[in-house]
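QA checklist item 7 of 12: single-chain prediction sanity check.
[x] sequence parsed
[x] length recorded as 186
[x] structure emitted
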Amino acid sequence: MNRSPMPYGQQSNAPELAQAISENPTFSALQNEALHEREVQAMRYSYIYPLSGEVVGQQTTTFNITIEQGTDFLCKFMTGSAFSYDAVNASDFPIPNSLGVTAWAGRGLSVQMFDSSSGRELTSGFVPFELVFSPGYGLNVQTPLRWCYYFYRNTKVRFDVRNRDNADRTHYFEIALHGYKIVTPN
């Protein structure tokens, strides 16, 4: 298609076309939606805080995730996995049941969580790792725990991780908080 320049003195209809487009409600809605998304992304974007560690048998160790100074963090869900290289014999993990009688299970870690900025305990004491995190000690990812919590900037999310393994085996874990970093004016 051959397009030649407009002859001198002939006017283009581009301004009229631009005005017609800007007055079109569909185009205006799309333009507003794109502008809104750009503004929202400037103030909120997806982010993952990872944490990994190891806990020796019959020990409790503290781990922290620090929310940076410049942004708050809205956690939407959590995932985590744990394993021990020697976890072959399920009878090495005594866990007292509600009657105080020792039962046996093939899991070793429990976790307790805190928010340092508010001083809130985020779990009711120690909770078995596999009940909070997915896939836990499993091999397949299950549905991640929907856990919505707003952390302020400069917060330390504290995880006390307890290894209940009587055989003194080291257990390893990975935890991830998934959500949005939120940029707010100081």
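[x] summary fact logged: The CA atoms of residues 93 and 105 lie 6 Å apart.
[ ] second reviewer sign-off
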